[in-house]
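Design job #97: recover the sequence.
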């Protein structure tokens, strides 16, 4: 905040736990009160708990889904009606993940949440395009954001009484890290181009293609086994 102000930006901050709808609604109230008009909304909050699905506790699932998926849903609930009421268009950006397009062993809960965010973005894009509102969903691989360490810190503060603290375990190696400045520029370009998918890592392309090829190939396999539809 102080850094941005030192750069000459007019910056406001609002404490918000995206797990709680009323706090995101308060954030929207304050945004419109302070700014008068909102053009772009970023749903960016995210955490991760790693490990095999069989080892995930119920609290692990709730923690990841509440932040990573419900946070985005609460953002839509709080901001979308007001964007529509403005009648001047706008743009909503969701931060999902490569794990929301291709499953990763050891990231089951995170992947389920991020698949949900991708589905939310894709559906919303279809529904609001006629209103002049664009939607983008960012699906990076590894980015220099200290996601694991920050997730542990935030969870420790929010759930100090929980018995499910500790390391989220090793995460799959995927690609060279990209800096946040590079990701921010690509995302800004996507907003200006009204591009739905923001895919920073070219290395993810082959995995995404293989997933959809497997899905497509299933129709031929079923037909070969006698299925008619």
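Job complete. Output follows.
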């Amino acid at each position: 905040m102080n850094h941005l102000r030192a750069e000459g930006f007019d910056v406001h901050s609002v404490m918000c736990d995206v797990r709680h709808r009323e706090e995101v609604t308060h954030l929207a109230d304050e945004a419109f009160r302070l700014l008068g008009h909102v053009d772009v909304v970023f749903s960016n909050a995210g955490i991760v708990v790693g490990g095999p699905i069989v080892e995930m506790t119920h609290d692990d699932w709730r923690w990841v889904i509440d932040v990573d998926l419900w946070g985005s849903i609460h953002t839509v609930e709080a901001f979308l009606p007001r964007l529509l009421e403005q009648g001047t268009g706008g743009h909503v950006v969701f931060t999902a993940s490569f794990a929301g397009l291709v499953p990763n062993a050891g990231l089951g809960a995170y992947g389920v949440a991020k698949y949900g965010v991708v589905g939310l973005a894709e559906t919303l894009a279809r529904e609001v395009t006629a209103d002049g509102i664009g939607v983008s969903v960012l699906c990076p691989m590894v980015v220099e954001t200290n996601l694991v360490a920050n997730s542990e810190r935030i969870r420790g503060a929010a759930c100090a009484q929980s018995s499910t603290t500790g390391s989220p375990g090793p995460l799959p190696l995927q690609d060279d890290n990209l800096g946040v400045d590079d990701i921010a520029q690509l995302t800004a370009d996507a907003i200006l181009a009204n591009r739905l998918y923001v895919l920073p890592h070219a290395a993810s392309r082959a995995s995404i293609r293989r997933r959809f090829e497997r899905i497509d190939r299933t129709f031929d396999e079923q037909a070969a086994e006698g299925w008619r539809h």
